[in-house]
Structure to design on (649 residues):
């Protein structure tokens, strides 16, 4: 399915909403239940974060959720098992989000095969730089039916964005601000200008804007420029409740989408 | 065999820059400028002047007569402990602060384990009049109180790293995140030969002054400009990289790296990365690290905060993989004993990190006429409490 499911998603007209969740948070078996609720509430695709001990690109909220998830007992075997469970009832596109060492340690072929077998559609690996990917790993990744999304940021020069566009299959992940995930503050003129510039580049891939989107106002602004909006830290904060996380998850999406 | 980096910053299969796009601009700016700036005459002149008049270089190469007698061989100590701020770390921070200024940066960040690199960074930031934030694990803040006080007096802000094991690994994560959040004004002074390319190469170059001096000092004292063996401790491995640098291509020089065994390799309380570790990415570099089957990084342990690190620099991974360097392990108790031994034989109190290198001497079969240089990377003032508690 992989690339096809992502393509079908982005071929549809209209803005898409993606939610990032940390597998194993707030409770070990939360992910399948959360995906069910999120899909019902109209979320279009899921970023399923595999918690990592040393998440360099993540701010405090996701760091803490990762530490909690690992403590709850989340591991890669369980992660793939839960993805399989989800595939019994849902066709929603799901991306693996994690750090390169997790892919590497499993053995790259093993890892990618497991992604395909369990029903993962694409990958976001923030610390795999496009240069190193191209030089060392693209041939391996190409053997599998999986999209790969690279990040761009406000500091990424145009020609580099083009290069990244060529490497990407799925969508480009445009980071809203030069900061780790979950940074506070409203979007100003600077953000608007950046989003506009990306839109005007008419990239081959669809563009999703993420990082720092924690309210409806920012969600709407991102929607004006991008094909999709990704919400992570704000969602993780909202479901910080081992009892009521499913209700809170539904409520969160409803408040954003209205 | 080649011991230098390729275009993407790899030593063989180790190194590179596994960085999020958010760091790309910072890292590229540094990569494009470090050699250019370092090679200018102005830079070289100022760097050498500061090393001489401010740091107090050259550091002596001292024939330790009683220690030599004890082991039945010739042992020289490269006295990095006599540098300003008390360790080899200042060689690198002097270089990087000049680089930061040349690149127009106004804010300095650093990570620190034992606090030696933090102090060396706070020192040069004061010297340059730049704002300085040092990330230090909460656990290390407690066990290295004198260095925390020094950093504060020097005007640096010491920010506790509260995630993970609350030690050097986590302080490094926090510093990297800070750099991501300050893409314009900030230079990150990494203290070891770790991190994304160009750091391992850059830091090794700044530390190479150690082996550069050793060459002429050995020639003067032994009539030959190389030793039979160099012994150094490795956490990340910056003092070892500096001590090996000019001898890497001389196969006659045996390179011995001593890792921290903690309570013992099989106890689960260890920092012996090359024994317990496997290939992977830590702090944006492909190297060897301690990790579980899912690639989660394992929290290390050593009595020495400066060696309490679950990775090693990619150069060292390459040297070990190719057989160019040999690794020994010294446990907490062995390092403490070696620290006391040097103190009583030579009147020099070594840093606990350097005491690991000294403990390595117990495991070497010496010939009487061989020349061994131990890189005495730092002095032990900061560790007095630990020494006395375990004496």
């Amino acid at each position: 399915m992989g690339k096809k499911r992502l393509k079908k998603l982005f071929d549809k007209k209209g803005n898409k909403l993606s939610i990032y969740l940390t597998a194993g948070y707030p409770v070990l078996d939360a992910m399948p239940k959360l995906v069910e609720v999120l899909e019902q509430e109209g979320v279009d695709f899921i970023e399923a974060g595999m918690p990592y001990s040393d998440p360099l690109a993540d701010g405090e909220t996701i760091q803490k959720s990762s530490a909690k998830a690992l403590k709850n007992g989340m591991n890669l075997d369980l992660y793939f098992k839960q993805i399989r469970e989800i595939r019994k009832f849902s066709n929603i596109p799901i991306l693996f989000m994690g750090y390169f060492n997790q892919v590497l340690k499993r053995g790259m072929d093993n890892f990618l095969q497991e992604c395909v077998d369990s029903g993962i559609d694409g990958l976001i690996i923030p610390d795999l730089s496009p240069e190193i990917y191209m030089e060392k790993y693209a041939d391996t990744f190409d053997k599998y039916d999986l999209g790969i999304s690279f990040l761009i940021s406000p500091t990424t020069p145009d020609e580099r964005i083009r290069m990244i566009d060529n490497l990407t299959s799925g969508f480009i992940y445009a980071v809203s601000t030069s900061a780790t995930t979950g940074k506070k503050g409203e979007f100003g003129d600077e953000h608007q200008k950046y989003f506009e510039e990306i839109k005007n580049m008419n990239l081959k891939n669809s563009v999703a804007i993420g990082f720092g989107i924690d309210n409806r106002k920012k969600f709407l602004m991102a929607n004006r420029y991008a094909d999709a909006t990704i919400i992570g830290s704000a969602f993780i904060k909202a479901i910080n409740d081992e009892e009521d996380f499913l209700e809170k998850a539904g409520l969160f999406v409803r408040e954003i989408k209205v | 065999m080649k011991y230098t980096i390729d275009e993407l910053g790899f030593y063989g299969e180790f190194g590179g820059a596994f960085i999020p796009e958010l760091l790309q601009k910072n890292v590229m700016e540094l990569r494009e400028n470090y050699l250019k700036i370092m090679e200018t005459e102005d830079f070289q002149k100022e760097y050498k002047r500061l090393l001489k008049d401010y740091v107090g270089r050259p550091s002596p190469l001292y024939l330790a007569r009683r220690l030599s007698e004890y082991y039945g061989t010739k042992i020289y100590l490269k006295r990095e402990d006599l540098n300003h701020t008390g360790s080899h770390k200042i060689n690198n921070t002097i270089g990087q602060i000049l680089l930061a200024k040349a690149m127009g940066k106004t804010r300095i960040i650093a990570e620190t384990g034992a606090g030696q690199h933090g102090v060396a960074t706070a020192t040069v930031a004061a010297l340059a009049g730049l704002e300085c934030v040092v990330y230090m694990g909460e656990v290390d803040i407690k066990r290295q109180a004198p260095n925390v006080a020094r950093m504060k007096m020097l005007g640096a802000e010491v920010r506790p790293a509260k995630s993970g094991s609350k030690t050097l690994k986590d302080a490094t994560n926090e510093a990297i995140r800070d750099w991501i959040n300050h893409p314009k004004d900030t230079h990150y002074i990494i203290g070891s030969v770790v991190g994304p390319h160009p750091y391992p190469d850059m830091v090794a170059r700044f530390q190479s002054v150690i082996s550069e001096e050793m060459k002429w000092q050995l020639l003067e004292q032994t009539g030959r400009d190389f030793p039979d063996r160099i012994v150094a401790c490795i956490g990340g491995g910056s003092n070892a990289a500096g001590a090996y640098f000019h001898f890497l291509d001389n196969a006659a020089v045996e390179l011995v790296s001593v890792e921290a065994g903690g309570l013992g390799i099989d106890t689960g309380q260890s920092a012996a990365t090359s024994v317990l570790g496997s290939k992977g990415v830590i702090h944006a570099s492909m190297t060897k690290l301690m990790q579980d089957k899912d690639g989660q990084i394992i929290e290390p342990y050593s009595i020495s905060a400066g060696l309490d690190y679950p990775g090693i620099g990619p150069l060292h991974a390459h040297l070990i993989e190719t057989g160019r360097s040999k690794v020994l392990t010294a446990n907490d108790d062995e390092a403490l004993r070696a620290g006391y031994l040097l103190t009583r034989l030579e009147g020099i109190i070594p840093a606990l990190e350097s005491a690991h290198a000294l403990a390595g001497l117990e495991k070497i079969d010496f010939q009487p006429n061989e020349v061994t240089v131990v890189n005495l990377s730092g002095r032990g003032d900061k560790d007095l409490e630990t020494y006395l508690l375990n004496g």
Notes: Chain A touches chain B at residues 52-54, 56-57, 59, 63, 67, 70, 75-76, 99-106, 126-129, 131-132, 135, 150-153, 155-156, 160, 164, 175, 178-180, 183 (CB under 8 Å).
